[in-house]
Amino acid sequence: MVNTSLLLAIILTAWTCSASPPNFVLLFADDLGFGDLGSYGHPSSLTPNLDRLAAGGLRFTDFYCSSPVCSPSRASLLTGRYQTRSGIYPGVLYPSSIGGLPLSETTIAEVLKPLGYATAAVGKWHLGFGSKGMYLPTNQGFDQYLGIPYSHDMGPCHNLTCFPPDIKCFGMCDFSSVAIPLMYNKVIIQQPVNFLDLERDYSDFATNFITTSAKKKQPFFLYYPSHHTHYPLYAGPDAAGKSLRGPFGDALLDLDNTIGKIMTTLEKTGLINNTLVLFTSDNGPELMRMSRGGNAGLLKCGKGTTYEGGMREPAIAFWPGTISPGVTHELASTLDVLPTITHLAGAKLPKVILDGVDMTEILVNRGKSKREAMIFYPTNPSEKSGLFALRLGKYKAHFYTRGASHSGTTPDQDCSVFAGLRAHDPPLVFDLEADPSEHYPLSLEGKPDLQAVLERIKKVKEQFEASMVFGESQMSKGRDPSLEPCCNPDCSPKPACCHC
User: Fold this and answer.
1) 70 is catalytic
2) What stretches of 273-426 show up as alpha helix (H) in DSSP?
3) Out of 70, 162, 415, 487, which one is annotated catalytic?
4) Would you call 497 a catalytic residue per the annotation?
């Protein structure tokens, strides 16, 4: 039998000694549910490019984000640290937020820069704008950025065209905010954004970045946090009306088209076999939007909750010749992306407490995960209440449960905002292998084996919470309307005059 550790060492030595370090493409969907992709069981989603990634790559069944809402989840992805450490809590950042991802935090881009990597971000940032754009990607390790600096529902979207030829966006969004800007680096190049051309602009930017890096023979890191499939839904001419699933399906196809163009460029430049492509999503589906929201499949609830549907995500790792096609049931998380990329690139880990672990053994050898547990924090974590739930192996214990407005409209009454905060003592314990839907809490009475499991969970919880130092809440710094991005900063009256 081949020694897998020796094989891994040989592969990593070959990468280290190679004149061509691996490239990294990180694809991050928005509000996409566990059951939204065809490769995860949806019968009518049209995603041919993601389907090819799933067929040719490694598909995860037990992959988690760190938060059931946008900003904190993105902070953890890029830093490998729970959002409580970086201060990206409670809730999300807004156009006028004073705070943002602290510049003292180290992102994946900043890990790779000392090794000569070209770095670019394209799409939804949502980690702060701040005074003079101080929290934008170009101040966080990225050479280039094209995108919207926050969620695209944080503006007067009702009067914008979301589908051709002139179908308006569904809903009012935040009418009192400035029009949604499209930025290149720190400059607003369009306000309000033209949704119909947005994915074309993104794919052009991404493919040009890859092509330029290839010509320079420079390793690169491309981060594409998509707006899809967050509300309000939109799709360009190449996707609108093309799916069987209505507006949500069209938006998902729009995302898939961009991914397809990125993959085609990797093939044409000859970089496909030297590039790790990772795909996942920031949190579960916004079920309150019904058919205009996503689908958590067989998982319970969705966005805003610490049930499985809120934080368990589809995830695919693709790297021809290095990652064999298949499925893994190992426990993994967005927190693990930074340590994994750092290891594969031969970079140095940040000198801070990290919550992520290296996934290389899973990716290369279909080996065991180094991750012992997954922590579930609510949207408003606090040191007093601590974590809401903890998964250890196949068992998950809920110490607190609560519904969310994002997960309303479902028949399950536990998901609604009217399902208020409930403490559970003893905690609700589920076997996620037998009951991934969290329908049937296990009875501990007369079952010493399960009681022992719960004691181990409590011990891990105690140790974790003792190690957790909450960073200063960036959201608690408040908001200042004068910070909202405006292409005509001296115009009046705001926000109506911010058009260019």
Assistant:
1) yes
2) 308-311, 337-345, 360-365
3) 70
4) no
